């Protein structure tokens, strides 16, 4: 069964409604049934979307700081791991800059996964991933992730079928382990259309300050577009679990993509409801010590 | 010879003038001659200072992205390392949030150094520091640093005099090595008065959402204020070198502290003048590939 996309269009959708609308339910996944150009939960325009994103700064910053305080004080062992996946130009970097950039960088740990090094290739595919798991109190962000190992790994047949099958299970085991240890896993696929990717690649070619973001291999990968979409579908089907579900965010509009991930992150932090740690010292006693100092 | 502090008060001081005014010159250092409550180079008020800080966002972000592009493309091996030191409440965290937070978090690597772990204590004091050195293209930030090992190390006599002496030299060697490998080292002491620290500690006690930032040991350290100031003076004298000079930023006013570090960082990036990497592919050819795709 496919999914015909979220239906709500009014702008008062709550973060948890949005998460429910974008969550990938159990069962086979047909990405063509997930729109790339809609703005579920919002009927405003780009300017309104940008304004709403800016308004997320205060509540996101407040909850992030509470979570950080929990971690520093030892009052909590919880963290958040935001996993960002998507085709080239889908905007993983834009989400980090515009959405994750809203909160105190001290509380954030970003890991960008490139092609594995020879050293990394000698280890299990999760070896380098484990090193990026956020410490208690932190918001970790994966810009690409262990999912590359079942995406490009499948499309380019970098490993055999048996290893590929093993990896889906290993990913689920790994993520269950994370959840059990207090890591709240928020998985987001930024879903762009092939036509939008073409526009964005052409725009990169038109702008010399963007040439560094372009590689001819990006166009080679477009030749495998359908294979990648199929690999995403299989990955989503196999790994969208109750404790670590996937969300598909329509990403043809940058402003909506940034706003939607911001609201998903806010929703996750609201559910965690981190609290300011209480003092483990006598506040009055300490105040007295300071006040009794010679002027 | 002491230093009677910067004299310029007009607000058109350039970043390099500011760096020169705040730089610790060779020779003995007397921190009592460095003001904590002035705003060198600026005669505006807090509102104006906050506005000016906001205006740094675009040029800082632009230069940071160019540096990042250099690193990603392999066109450059350069990075920046901002070392933040200062007494408790001097605002290291505030600088990270308000100033470093102006740029894309993907291009930033923040390392906060706490008391060393047993594993770290088994190694040379620079062992854990080396792991935080930013990769090419990044802006690294040290919230506390290897200088703790000659500050608290001296004040609390954690090591003997001989080891302490060895460390100043080891630090200079290490930093020269960094500079030679392309790391631009920007060292900043956030200089607060003892009275300001008292106000800020009292404010933390007054606000339950700030209790997690307070520890009774902070007041114990105040009892050693003069010893710490002396340890800073010696560290600055021994390690303010031509290639890795120290800067003393008056930090009694948060807005000026944030702005001054922002301008120092901007000045460093302007001197580096990172350039957009040129394409290592034929732009027209790649455009042709995209345009010739079936619609």
What would you say this structure looks like, in words?
- 2 copies of one chain form a homodimer.
- By secondary structure, chain A is of the alpha/beta class.
- Chain A has one domain: Rossmann fold.
- In chain A, 48% of the residues lie in helices and 11% in strands.
- The first copy, chain A, is built from 12 helices and 5 strands.
- The first copy, chain A, has a 5-stranded parallel sheet, sandwiched between helices.
- In chain A, helix 2 runs parallel beside helix 11 (254-272) and helix 6 packs antiparallel against helix 10.
- Residues 1-10 of chain A have low confidence and may be disordered.
- At the A-B interface, helix 2, helix 3, strand 2, helix 8 and helix 9 of A face helix 2, helix 3, strand 2, helix 8 and helix 9 of B.
Task: Tag the structure with descriptive keywords.
Rossmann fold, PPK2-related (chains A, B), 295 residues, alpha/beta, homodimer
Question: What is shown here, in short?
Answer:
2 copies of one chain form a homodimer. Chain A is an alpha/beta fold and 295 residues long. The first copy, chain A, is built from 12 helices and 5 strands.
**Share in helix of chain A:** 40-55%
| Largest binding interface between chains | A-B, 42 and 42 residues
What's the name of the CATH homologous superfamily of chain A? P-loop containing nucleotide triphosphate hydrolases
Unreliable spans of chain A: 1-10
> What is the N-to-C succession of helices and strands of chain A?
HHEHEHHEHHEHHHEHH
Instruction: Decide which structural class fits the backbone of chain A.
Output: alpha/beta
* Mass-distribution shape of chain A: globular
Please report which band the strand proportion of chain A falls in: under 5%, 5-15%, 15-25%, 25-35%, 35-45% or over 45%: 5-15%
Q: Which quaternary structure do these chains form?
A: homodimer
| Cα end-to-end separation of chain A | 74 Å
What's the pLDDT, averaged over the residues of chain A?
94
At the fold tier of CATH, the topology name of chain A is: Rossmann fold
Question: The biggest beta sheet of chain A, please?
Answer: 5 strands, parallel
Just name the CATH architecture of chain A.
3-Layer(aba) Sandwich
Tell me the radius of gyration of chain A: 21 Å
- Record the strand order, biggest sheet of chain A: 2-3-1-4-5
The number of helices of chain A is 12
How many β strands of chain A by DSSP?
5
């Amino acid at each position: 069964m496919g999914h015909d996309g979220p239906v709500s269009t009014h702008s008062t959708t709550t973060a948890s409604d949005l998460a429910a609308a974008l969550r990938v339910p159990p069962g086979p996944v047909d990405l063509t049934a997930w729109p790339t150009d809609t703005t579920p939960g919002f009927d405003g325009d780009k300017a309104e979307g940008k304004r709403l994103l800016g308004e997320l700064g205060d509540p996101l910053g407040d909850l992030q700081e509470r979570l950080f305080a929990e971690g520093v004080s030892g009052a909590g062992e919880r963290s958040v791991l935001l996993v960002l996946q998507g085709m080239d130009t889908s905007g993983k970097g834009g989400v980090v800059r515009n959405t994750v950039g809203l909160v105190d960088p001290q509380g954030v740990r970003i890991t960008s996964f490139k092609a594995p090094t020879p050293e990394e290739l000698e280890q299990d595919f999760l070896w380098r991933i484990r090193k990026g798991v956020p410490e208690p109190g932190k918001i970790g962000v994966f810009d690409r992730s262990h999912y590359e190992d079942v995406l490009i790994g499948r499309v380019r047949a970098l490993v055999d079928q048996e290893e590929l099958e093993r990896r889906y299970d290993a990913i689920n085991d790994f993520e269950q382990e994370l959840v059990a240890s207090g890591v709240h896993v928020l998985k987001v696929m930024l879903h762009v259309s092939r036509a939008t990717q073409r526009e964005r690649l052409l725009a990169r070619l038109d702008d010399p300050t963007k040439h560094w973001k372009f590689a001819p291999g990006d166009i080679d990968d477009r030749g495998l577009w359908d294979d990648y979409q199929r690999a995403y579908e299989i990955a989503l089907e196999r790994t969208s679990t109750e404790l670590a579900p996937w969300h598909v965010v329509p990403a043809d509009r940058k402003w909506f993509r940034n706003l939607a991930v911001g609201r998903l992150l806010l929703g996750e932090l609201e559910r965690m409801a981190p609290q300011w740690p209480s003092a483990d010292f006598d506040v009055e006693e300490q105040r007295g010590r300071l006040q009794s100092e010679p002027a």
